Amino acid sequence: MRIGVPKEIKNHEYRVGLTPASVAELVAAGHEVLVETKAGTGIDFADEAYTRVGATIAPDAAAVFAGSDMIVKVKEPQAQEIALLESRHTLFTYLHLAADKPQTEGLIRSGATCIAYETVTSNSGALPLLKPMSEVAGRMSIQVGAHYLEKEQGGRGELLGGVPGVAPCKVAILGGGVAGINAAQMAVGQRADVTIYDINNERLAELDMHFGSQIKTAYASKAAIAEAVSRSQLVIGAVLVPGAAAPKLVTRDMLKTMMRGSVLVDIAIDQGGCFETSHATTHDDPVYEVDNVIHYCVANMPGAVARTSAFALNNATLPFVLKIANLGAGAAMRADKHLANGLNVSAGKVRHQAVAEALDLPFEAWAAV
Ligand SMILES: NC(=O)c1ccc[n+]([C@@H]2O[C@H](COP(=O)([O-])OP(=O)(O)OC[C@H]3O[C@@H](n4cnc5c(N)ncnc54)[C@H](O)[C@@H]3O)[C@@H](O)[C@H]2O)c1
């Protein structure tokens, strides 16, 4: 199959759909890979790194789309990319269509087979192509939280782990899923005083087994959260209710009880945020203050560590890219129901029920025959 990798054109997006190592795997399997010039230069993958493993460099996105059967990207296609999509193409990338009707209508018009990373599933019912980005965001949340606790950044002037003779900061992590456990690992590594709050008792038991005495766990009742917020220097929001907006666990009133210069990191901001006072920010201007509490609410945290994120994403996507390339999209989806769950749009129809319902568009199931 001919596989195309355009340069990402969204503002501040430096990740790339395929790393040179992934290209090498595809070439070894007998496929042709066409990479747009400078697609990876932002994260130090020069064009030569791609040609060395057998890719061909294309001068622009139009040449990539014209010369490829499958397009592998990171972010949802922008209007000028949708204009290049044809019915013969398979598009494999993050789409997040449920909140984006213009994009969905563009993909419908293109006739292309559009498979979204975020709806591909696994045997355990998890979303394996979202997981790496939650891992990155979870780990980053402690790093940014520690940074903004510094005095010069407007914070309390406290070191997360304290020093001998000075107590460490209290870190409250709301939600003990993928992002939450990764945040906890980093916070424990920095010797902070960590408590994870969740409403899933089985999950709390797993976390208790995993961390032993290194952390505390607590059921996320309103009272427990109110107390946590009033005592913690750093609060991480990492909850997820699949398919729904994040619950507002920390209210404006609770904020007033927080210590001056403490920090909230709302990882769940991409689902609306779990603090009442959260609004989405960008890497250009990541924080703001409400009631002397610093809020960090960047909706695409992994973009800040684009090189790590590109490797992590490729680790998860490559097996599926190979399957599609080896079998073709139709046969690959017939062979793998989890990949088929990634199908959002094909042949001008919306194939994902939740997307169709969210956008009030007709749904027509893809027939795996
Ligand atoms: N900002 C970013 O850049 C970025 C990047 C990646 C992921 N995310 C977001 O991070 C969030 C967490 O993702 P994840 O992969 O860790 O999800 P996950 O499903 O692995 O974990 C979510 C956890 O939240 C818990 N939870 C649900 N409701 C709760 C409540 N009321 N109180 C306490 N806990 C509750 C669940 O039981 C679960 O353990 C999601 O909103 C995801 O979209 C953001």
From TrEMBL:
Report keywords, A-Z: NAD, Nucleotide-binding, Oxidoreductase
Specify whether rRNA-binding is a keyword of the entry. no
Where substrate binds, per the record, is at 15, 75
- Residues of the active site are 96, 270
Q: Which residues form the Alanine dehydrogenase/pyridine nucleotide transhydrogenase NAD(H)-binding domain?
A: 149-297
Coiled-coil spans are none
An example Gene Ontology CC term for this record:
plasma membrane
Positions with a binding annotation for NAD(+): 134, 198, 203, 239-240, 267-270, 298-301
Annotated Pfam families: AlaDh_PNT_C, AlaDh_PNT_N
GO BP: any one term: L-alanine catabolic process
SUPFAM superfamilies this protein is in? Answer: Formate/glycerate dehydrogenase catalytic domain-like, NAD(P)-binding Rossmann-fold domains
First-level EC class: oxidoreductase
Which segments constitute the Alanine dehydrogenase/pyridine nucleotide transhydrogenase N-terminal domain?
A: 4-137
Among the GO molecular function terms of this UniProt record, one is: alanine dehydrogenase activity
What EC number(s) has UniProt assigned to this enzyme?
1.4.1.1
Q: Is Oxidoreductase set as a keyword in this record?
A: yes
Name the family: Belongs to the AlaDH/PNT family.
What is the protein named? Answer: Alanine dehydrogenase
Q: Which organism is it from?
A: Sphingomonas xinjiangensis
